[in-house]
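ugh ok fine here u go
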Amino acid sequence: MATARDVMHTGCTCVQSDDTAANAARLMAELDVGSLPICGAEDAKIKGMVTDRDLVIKVMAAGHDAEAYTVDRLPQGHLVLADANEDVEVTIAKMKEHQVNRIPVIDEGRLVGIIALSDVSQRMPESVTGGVVGSIKS
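structure:
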């Protein structure tokens, strides 16, 4: 039985909850990623996720100053997490149910990795990948 830990990629960088949208965008560009976990400035626990789409739609298009708008002000829906030791099929079911492209993986409350669609496609059978992709709406 494969676990979420077996499929995730490690080395995740968080943007701090009190950091600005502009700094989050610069960090995404530097790391060449489309999303970042938001971690608490005081406790380093994951608080949410920020995507490049969030920055464009909820900050720039809404007329906010990205240099002053902190990422903790971004509206956050229900944060969907995977436990590092859960069966990867449970994690994939969460991705499908909540229609998310990426899911943070935690171990004892701390962020240890992320599973993205690319991780699923590289490490799981094609039929599993197709099922996840088919369930996620753009």
